[in-house]
Every structure is written in structure tokens, then in C-alpha cells.
Design a protein that fits this description.
The protein has 874 residues and is α+β, with helices and mostly antiparallel strands. The protein has 30 helices and 23 strands.
Length: 874
């Protein structure tokens, strides 16, 4: 026989490798050799008698027939072991109630805080995703070519029909007039001031998914004076009656516009950036804005939306806008502005757009809160790791005995992971059950409509459960490996638990906890300081003791009589018909002779006032004069500029200079007002023009004495009722109205305070557990020190020194990180505080105080114990 044939024969004598490997997996350790030897002996006999192919088939059959029994036994004993692990975990939790309570409470609090932020972030990211065509919906923006980075959400009414006609890529367009916001409505004898009152094209339902539940489903907004209301709104007005066909009167100035209800919409989802309760047909605007209101380019008062055809790249449409502008405008006007498209998904979290809707969020805050959620969860996991490793010496003997009687490290890991999983799942259930209440509390705190339901929000629940399980696994990995690594011989000799490695790790983790807590505390203090700075910085006008009254048509028509009635009350010092700071939104184009003789043009903010505005609001004229009721031309041809406008134009002396609105006759500058903050401190003071235009002014500013506010309000209401019988009075205070600009920062401060408090609470729970174990382990040392003459103060100082050192290390770590983060946050504000040393010192003092108070109870118990009892116990 040739050598190659012999070699081939020897290879065929061996059993198949795959089933042999399967046998090795089924029968590990010593059983493998016994089982394989028996099967191989039979295999060789069959190989000689029946041949190689029969023998291999028999070998495969033996292995495959054994698999069902193997898996059944594996499943049976896995269930038995799992029950055993659960039983042991429950026993350990029951035996160490205090430890288990601290661990579960800490994890549950961390999970709840994290889940709460996840729900909030998920809601913010879900805005407008419920629209089936959301990926094809865009909003029209415009910008000045001189300031291309400043884009406005408002556009003129004439763009929508022309874009639909000129662009084959556009499937539909629609317009919203939302500036009204609130309105006075009357049904039969009942009058109400309502919010969420808008006007829209009938095509809005072809673009957005706002389902109709009752009434006309085919173009319910085609006819003028048509009205759609939401389900909740219909119940408010008509209870259970059918609202279709009923008429509500819109009271606007002296107009009485009947609105016929044609349809009822489902309630608008809270994650829609367009919020409304009433939608009036767009042609109705002509009743109060003129016949040309639906097709003009002079007033940017509308929000225009575009639906592109499927497969269209919106950037290709934007490239055609310059040609579109040139087609519909003369060259001079076309060179002044440009148009853009903003994707629907990019609207809610984009804070860079001027004149955006008030539902706009802030993506920076999402990053902040996501970081806070991670920090709090990390603090909770560190607690779990610290407490588990601190208890390792107490369980070392148990682990050693288990290894002696035959437990493998893998089995010990499964047991320890089971205990971690039990703790984590218990905390997870508590957090999920409490999340519903917490979400409603957060919604009330931040003034938003948040909701959470374990059944309806199954997608979020799956994410939250995944986060909880992952956090539990990660937190349990290190303690499990530490405990399972103990050597039985060293454990039983009592030397396995000695050393500083575990103590060093716990200290490092405590430093991380303190650093994260310090970061949150210092950040909260800086946010609060910035809020106080913005609310208390001198604004250049006096916002205190000023009442704003929204005027109806009847009161405005008789404003002179209304003012005279108010000034008869001695507590009312002045009354002005004016737009007030914080409500200045209009920008107009102004012209003046340039240095080369040609007219120059710039867009400036415009504040419509009357001659009493400046003294009523406490502003200061630094050049020229105020408007005068005795000078007739002041109404049409006089302007007052702020200092920034004068500097922007380049004048040294402004009084007497020719000046005009772009579509009016030339007038002149009669005065210069000292710069004041007519918008929030988020922005620098910009150029501003004060101009008399009573037809565009619908607010009265009433200055009252500090001691006579209640009497003044009573007088205002009496004068109102004498002139207006249908519409209830609406008033507010200027200081609170101006401070509304800082509501987002105030909400941020409140949330920071809550989450910082929770983070400190979680850290203190862990610190309490560690202090308890630390004092138990050092009972003998404390007793000996007391025998040698140590006082309670000495022992307390000994323990506090250790924590003080850790606080100092955490301060060194947290300071540069916190400074960088908060400097970045403050960079968004034109006027901001300087980050001093005080917040960091205060943060360290708070951490040290809380840590000392937390551990003091355990130290006090150990220090007050009888030394003889301690030493005898040891």
C-alpha cells in the first residue's frame, strides 16, 4: 500500500470533527473522555464492519439523538439554578435591609431622574413628526443681503401663490396669520377673550395632518368668514351640542365679524410647533387689513409653508429663488433680500430665526439636560459599585466556601449578576411606576404639556427598560468580578480582604461623585446669578408700577376720554398710547440723504408711541425734544432715534436731519433718546426709531404710584366698563411682561435645582452606606482611640478630614470643566455675568456640609459607644 493511501486511511479512521466538537461542548471536564472513548470504540468497530460512510452516519446520529435530552436537562438545571440565584438574592436583600434600601432607593432615584429627562428630550425631538409628509414640508424664510445670517420666519402674503405657480417642484403652499394670537369672541350673550386664534389658507389641510372629526371635510376654509375649532374648544362653547353651522362673532376694534363653524378638528398634538384652537379662513383678513391683504409684498406678517413633490431636493429650489425675486421685483428691491427654505424638522429646535413662533425649543438645553441625566445615572451607578465593593469583605468567606464545595467562577458570576439584576429591576419598576406622576409634575413646572403612559408610550418604555437593564449590568460587572476573584485559601486564612486596592477605587469613585455634584451645584448657582442679573440690570427705562391695558375698538376710539377718566385718579400719574419695551417687533425701512447725495436705506426697529410715552416709561431725551401734542407735524413727519441708530447712520448731531420711512414723505429727526433695552438682554441694543402711529398701537401704558396700585386698578376697570360693554378688560404689569423673556432661563434654573438636589441626595445615600460600613470596620480602632483619651471631636475630625480631602480633589477636577461649560453657555448672551470664584467656593461648602451631616450620624453612633463593649465585641 502506498504512503498516500495509508495517510488517507488514517484520516478516515478519525471521527467527524463537528460532532466530536459538539460532544466536547455537551460533556465538559472528566465526562468528556469517558463518553468520547465509548463512542469512538463503537465507531471503530463499525468502521471495520460497515465501512467509513456508515460509521460516520452512525456517529452523527448518536450525537444528534443526544441533543434533545441534553437541552432538556440544560434547561431544567438552568431553571433550578436561576430559582436558586433569585432565592439567594432575596435572602441577601432581606438580611441586609439597610444596604438593600439604600441601593434600591439610590438606583430608583437615578433611574427616575434619567427617565424623566429622556421623556422630555424624546418629546422635544418628536416635534412635527406626526405629519405624514413632514419630510417634504418646508417653511419660507427671508433675509437681507446685507445681513444674510439673520433670517426671518415672517414673509409677505404674495409669495405663496406665485411660488406655487412658478415652481413645478412645488406641490402645494399655505399661509398662516398667527400674529393675532388672542381674540375677543362672542356667542349669543357670552363674550370671552381666547388664545390660539389664527387665520389660514384652506390648503393647510393638504399639507399638515390635522384630522377633522365633525363637519365639512372637503375644503372647510374655502369661503370667507369660515371657522374651524378643536374638540376641546367646541366643548367649552357648546358643551355637548353640535357646533357645526353655529356662528361666533369676532370682535376686532369696531368691527363685528360673524364666523360660521364649518368643521371640528381633533385636538392639536402638543408636539406641533403650530398651536391653535381656532382657525379662520384666510380671505376673512380682508375685513380688517384691506382688499390687497392676500396678495402684497410690503408687509411681512405671515408664515408661509411649502410642500415639495416627492424626490425634490429643496436646495435646488433655493437656487432658483434669485431668479424668482428678479422676476417679481425691480432690480433695486431684488438686490436687498433673499429667500430660503427651512425643513419642518429643523424648526422647533432652531433658535436663530427671527420672529419665530413661541413654541420654539432650544437644542442647547437638550444637550444640557442629556448631560445632567448621564451625570445623575452615573452617580447612582457609582453608589451601587461603592456599596457592593465595600461589602466585599463581609461576603468573602461565603464566596470562599462556595468555591471549596465546587462552584466555578462562572457560576459565582451568574449568582452575583443575579443579585445585581434583582436590585436593578426592583429600582427600575419603582422608577417606572413613579414616572407618570413625575412627568405631570415636570409639565406643571416648565409650563409644557408633557405626558407619559406605560401602555401608550411603549416605544419609550422599551428604551427606558433598556437603559435601566444596561445600567444595572454595567454597575454590577465590577463588584461581581471582584467578589468572584477571591482565592479560597486566602479567604479562609483571613488575608484576602486586606489591602488598599478596593479602598483606593472607592475613594476615586467618591471623588467622581463629588465632582459631578459640584459641577451641577456650581452650574445651578451661575444660572441663578445670570437670571438675577438679567432681571435686575438697569434697562434705561422704568418698568415698575406700569400697568399695560389691551385696548378694544370702543376704548381706543374714545382714548382721550379714557385717559382723562384715569388721570382724574390721583394715584395714576400718566397714561400713554404706546408699544412698550419687550413688545417691539416691527422693522421698517428708513431713508436719509447720504454723504454722496444719494439716499441711504437701512432696516431699523420701530416703536410706535405718543407724546406721553417717554415720561410715562421714564426714558431720557439726551438731544433735541420729545414729541408734542401741540405740534401737528409730529404725528406724520417727526422721528426720535436712539443713540445706537445715530451711531449706525454715522451722524454726530442728529436733530434736524432729514429722515423718512421708505414709503412716506420726508420728515426730520427731532430728538435722540438715551439707549434702553427695548428687547431682552439676550441681544445687544439695536438701532430704534420712535414714531407716532396711533392706528398701529393697541396698548395703554398706565403709570401708577407704588402705594395706589389697587385703587388705580379699580379706576381703570370702572373707566373701561363705562366705554366697553362687550369685551372684558385685559391688563398686565410691564415688569412681569418684560421678564417673560427669561422664562426659559427660569425653567432651566428650576430644573437644575431639582436635578442637582436629586444628585446630591443619591450621593448622600451612598455616602451614608459607606460611612456605616466604614465605622463598622473601624469599631475596634475607635474603641482603642477612646481608651487612649480621644474625644468625640477628635474622632469626628478624623473621619471628616478624609471626606474634606476628597471634596478638595473633586473641586480641583470640577472647576475647569464647569468653567468651560458655563462660559460656553453664557456666550449666547449679549449681557452676562462674570464667572467669579464665589460659586465654586459655595459649591465646595455645600458639598462638605452635606457630606459632614450625612456621615455625622454614623460617626456619632460609633464615637459615643462604650470602648469596653466595642473591644469586647471585636
Amino acid at each position: 500500500m502506498r504512503r498516500s493511501e495509508v495517510k488517507l486511511r488514517k484520516q478516515s479512521d478519525k471521527p467527524p470533527k463537528i460532532p466530536e466538537y459538539i460532544i466536547g461542548c455537551m460533556f465538559p471536564d472528566d465526562n468528556y473522555y469517558t463518553t468520547v472513548s465509548d463512542i469512538e470504540e463503537d465507531y471503530k468497530g463499525l468502521l471495520i464492519e460497515k465501512g467509513v460512510y456508515y460509521a460516520k452516519m452512525w456517529y452523527w446520529l448518536q450525537v444528534l439523538s443526544a441533543l434533545p435530552h441534553y437541552f432538556a436537562q440544560k434547561l431544567k438545571w438552568s431553571i433550578v439554578m436561576f430559582k436558586n440565584y433569585i432565592k439567594i438574592a432575596f435572602r441577601n436583600m432581606k438580611r441586609h435591609k439597610g444596604y438593600s434600601t439604600i441601593n434600591i432607593l439610590g438606583l430608583a432615584t437615578g433611574f427616575a431622574c434619567t427617565f424623566l429627562i429622556v421623556v422630555f428630550v424624546q418629546r422635544e425631538l418628536s416635534y412635527d413628526q406626526f405629519h405624514s409628509k413632514s419630510d417634504r414640508i418646508y417653511r419660507l424664510l427671508n433675509s437681507s443681503r446685507k445681513e444674510p445670517n439673520i433670517q426671518s420666519a415672517l414673509s409677505a402674503s404674495g409669495y405663496a401663490p406665485r411660488i406655487l405657480n412658478d415652481f413645478p417642484e412645488v406641490e402645494e403652499t399655505t399661509r398662516f396669520f398667527i400674529n393675532v394670537g388672542s381674540a375677543d369672541l362672542k356667542y349669543q350673550d357670552e363674550s370671552r377673550t381666547v388664545n390660539g386664534f389664527i387665520f389660514a389658507d384652506a390648503s393647510m389641510l393638504n399639507i399638515f395632518d390635522f384630522p377633522i372629526t365633525k363637519g365639512k371635510t372637503d375644503s372647510p376654509l374655502d369661503a370667507p368668514n369660515s371657522l374651524m375649532v378643536t374638540e376641546d374648544t367646541a366643548k367649552i362653547w357648546f358643551r355637548n351640542d353640535n357646533p357645526i353651522g353655529k356662528s361666533i362673532t369676532y370682535l376686532r376694534g369696531n368691527l363685528r365679524i360673524p364666523l360660521n363653524i364649518t368643521a371640528v378638528l381633533d385636538n392639536i398634538p402638543s408636539n406641533s410647533h403650530i398651536q391653535f384652537n381656532y382657525v379662520v379662513s384666510f380671505p376673512t383678513i380682508k375685513n380688517f387689513m384691506g382688499e390687497n391683504a392676500l396678495d402684497e409684498f410690503t408687509i411681512n406678517n405671515y408664515y408661509t409653508y411649502v410642500l415639495l413633490k416627492e424626490g425634490t431636493d429643496y436646495r435646488r429650489v433655493e437656487e432658483k429663488f434669485p431668479f424668482f425675486i428678479t422676476k417679481h421685483f425691480d432690480q433695486e428691491r431684488a438686490d436687498q433680500f433673499n429667500l430660503h427654505l427651512q425643513p419642518l424638522e429643523n424648526i422647533h429646535l432652531n433658535t436663530s430665526i427671527k420672529w419665530d413662533l413661541p413654541t420654539t425649543g432650544n437644542k442647547h438645553y437638550l444637550h444640557i439636560f442629556s448631560g445632567v441625566a448621564l451625570f445623575v445615572l452615573l452617580i447612582a451607578c457609582i453608589n451601587f459599585i461603592n456599596l457592593s465593593t465595600a461589602r466585599a469583605p463581609l461576603r468573602a468567606r461565603e464566596i470562599g466556601i462556595r468555591k471549596v464545595v465546587g462552584s466555578s467562577r462562572w457560576q459565582l458570576l451568574l449568582q452575583l449578576f443575579g443579585e445585581s439584576a434583582m436590585t436593578s429591576l426592583t429600582a427600575l419598576v419603582i422608577a417606572l411606576l413613579g414616572l407618570h406622576v413625575l412627568v405631570h409634575g415636570l409639565a406643571g413646572l416648565i409650563g409644557q404639556n408633557l405626558s407619559f403612559n406605560l401602555i401608550n408610550d411603549s416605544n419609550i418604555v422599551i428604551i427606558l427598560i433598556g437603559i435601566g437593564i444596561l445600567a444595572g449590568i454595567l454597575a454590577g460587572i465590577y463588584p461581581a468580578f471582584v467578589l468572584s476573584a477571591y482565592q479560597p485559601v486566602r479567604v479562609l486564612k483571613g488575608s484576602a480582604t486586606k489591602g488598599t486596592r478596593g479602598s483606593t477605587l472607592r475613594k476615586a469613585l467618591i471623588i467622581i461623585q463629588f465632582s459631578l455634584s459640584m459641577l451641577l451645584i456650581v452650574s445651578m448657582l451661575i444660572v441663578i446669578n445670570q437670571i438675577n442679573f438679567m432681571k435686575n440690570t438697569p434697562l434705561g427705562f422704568d418698568k415698575e408700577q406700569v400697568i399695560l391695558v389691551s385696548l378694544s375698538g370702543s376704548v381706543k376710539q374714545n382714548f382721550g376720554v379714557f385717559r382723562k377718566k384715569l388721570l382724574d385718579q390721583s394715584d395714576i400719574q400718566n397714561v400713554a398710547l404706546t408699544v412698550v419695551p419687550g413688545r417691539v417687533r416691527t422693522r421698517s425701512a428708513y431713508n436719509w440723504p447720504g454723504r454722496d447725495g444719494d439716499e441711504e436705506e437701512r432696516n431699523f426697529y420701530t416703536m410706535f408711541v405718543d407724546p406721553r410715552t417717554i415720561p410715562t416709561l421714564g426714558m431720557e431725551i439726551i438731544e433735541g425734544r420729545n414729541f408734542s401734542e401741540k405740534v401737528q407735524t409730529d404725528v406724520t413727519r417727526a422721528y426720535i432715534l436712539n443713540e445706537t441708530a445715530v451711531k449706525a447712520i454715522g451722524w454726530e448731531k442728529a436733530v434736524g436731519k432729514p429722515f423718512r420711512v421708505w414709503d412716506e414723505e420726508t420728515g426730520q429727526v427731532i430728538g435722540v433718546v438715551k439707549d434702553f433695552h427695548f428687547n431682552s438682554l439676550h441681544n445687544l441694543i439695536e438701532p430704534l426709531v420712535l414714531k407716532i402711529k396711533p392706528e398701529w398701537t393697541w396698548n395703554a401704558a398706565v403709570r401708577v404710584s407704588a402705594a395706589g396700585v389697587s385703587k388705580a386698578l379699580q379706576k381703570i376697570q370702572e373707566a373701561w366698563r363705562e366705554l366697553e360693554t362687550e369685551i372684558p378688560i385685559k391688563y398686565k404689569f410691564l415688569d412681569s411682561d418684560f421678564d417673560r423673556h427669561y422664562h426659559s432661563e427660569e425653567r432651566l434654573g428650576k430644573l437644575f435645582g431639582i436635578f442637582t438636589g436629586l444628585a446630591i441626595f443619591i450621593a448622600c445615600l451612598g455616602l451614608l452606606g459607606l460611612a456605616s460600613f466604614s465605622t463598622q470596620q473601624r469599631f475596634k480602632e475607635i474603641g482603642i482611640r477612646k481608651v487612649l483619651g480621644a474625644s468625640f471631636r477628635d474622632i469626628f475630625t478624623l473621619f471628616v478630614k478624609e471626606f474634606s480631602r476628597l471634596v478638595l480633589y473633586s473641586l480641583l477636577i470640577a472647576t475647569p470643566v464647569t468653567y468651560w461649560l458655563m462660559a460656553s453657555w453664557l456666550g449666547d448672551y449679549a449681557y452676562r455675568i462674570r464667572i467669579g470664584i464665589f460659586p465654586f467656593i459655595a459649591g465646595a461648602v455645600i458639598i462638605l456640609t452635606v457630606a459632614s451631616l450625612t456621615v455625622s450620624s454614623q460617626i456619632f453612633r460609633a464615637a459615643c459607644a462604650n470602648p469596653a463593649d466595642i473591644i469586647r465585641y471585636e
